[in-house]
Design a protein that fits this description.
The protein has 454 residues and is mainly alpha-helical. The chain has helices spanning 51-57, 65-69, 73-77, 80-93, 99-115, 119-139, 142-159, 163-181, 187-204, 208-222, 242-255, 260-270, 283-303, 312-323, 332-351, 371-384, 388-394, 396-401, 412-418, 422-443; strands at residues 29-31, 39-41, 357-361, 364-368.
Amino acid sequence: MPKNKKRNTAHRGGGGGGGSGAAAFLTSTFVDFPGGQHRNIQPFSDEDASIETMSHCSGYSDPSSFAEDGPEVLDEEGTQEDLEYKLKGFIDLTLDKSAKTRQAALEGLRSALASKLLCEFLLERRMTLTDSIERCLKKGKSDEQRAAAALASVLCVQLGPGIESEEVLKTLGPILKKIICDGTASIQARQTCATCFGVCCFVATDDITELYSALDCLESLFSKACLKEKDALVLGSGPSSGLPVSALLAWALLLTICPASELKKRLETHFHKLPSLLSSDDVNMRIAAGETLALLLELARGMESDFLYEDMESLTEMLRALATDGNKHRAKVDKRKQRSVFRDVLRAVEDRDFPTETVKFGPERMYIDCWVKKHTYDTFKEVLGSGLQYHLQANEFLRHVFELGPPVMLDAATLKTMKISRFERHLYNSAAFKARTKARSKCRDKRADVGEFF
């Protein structure tokens, strides 16, 4: 029986027939792609790899597991060298001839970077990684473009504001704008690129003219969806409706860092258009428009405490109707979600109030007490997924954005005592579920008509 081979260095470009060298780094995994479904990535065969070599290399497990277990995965399952070796392999595989291999490598990198800070590693390979993302955006198909754009977002969040992230945006920004505005490109790819473009500009933009240019680009997308007076056109709920939703949310994010003079100008131009989106057939568009209106009102009132929208009475009536919507043609889940959001939006418009939320991460707590902070939090949650909690603890840029101060330093022993095993977490959740069910059963009057018929 042959002896185990040493680690093989993944060679660039791969080989014919599905990605030579990929077996050393990609096993059969489920990769969690933001905004999409889990995909089953099958291993790519290597004619020269023996069974023992494959067994040896199978230690490079699914990088998406980093997002589940957090930074402690290094202490339990490997070393920093193993992680960096794996990531170098993924970077090499972004140049593979196989589209599936490139996509899996991009998604593996995104999962790893979303769950652990690797600033020094990235600074040494920033140009290589940026070139790979650029190539995949230019030449890849829809799914590969989405994976590349998602990785670009996390890369900028990792690098934070500074010359490095500015260079990334300078290289990738024009390509992202081209895809966003390309009517022949995949709607899903354009949607992910719009979110990515907004996040990268939020992190890296230092030139005010570039910020205004980004706002113009995003405005061109959602402005087309705005209904004009006496226009019978209704925005449908098909795949195309996701693009103006992403553009609107990215635009709102960038408005939070605009100078007051420019913010006032944009509000005067676009605020009166947004109420028309509340009539959309797509629940996600209605919710995005409602939350954006609440955000813009908060920003406007921050500049002028006596700010008053000229058609406030009509807007309030629309918001109240959505907060109590009983349209039987809409799904119950959509109605519940919509009513919950618009109750808060109506409260913000009428009473200038916001229901404070508490976010727990490690030993710390963060209070979300305004629409600006809520929208910013929701955006980075979409980009980082479950890795956001770790980044809130350790990422200086995000801690600055949310005014959390310098990272809290904890020793390994403290971190270990704070960690709860999966089994203990399962028992706790089961007990909480049973207690909640019993409490609700006592309060529920079975004779009452609690059904939803509208």
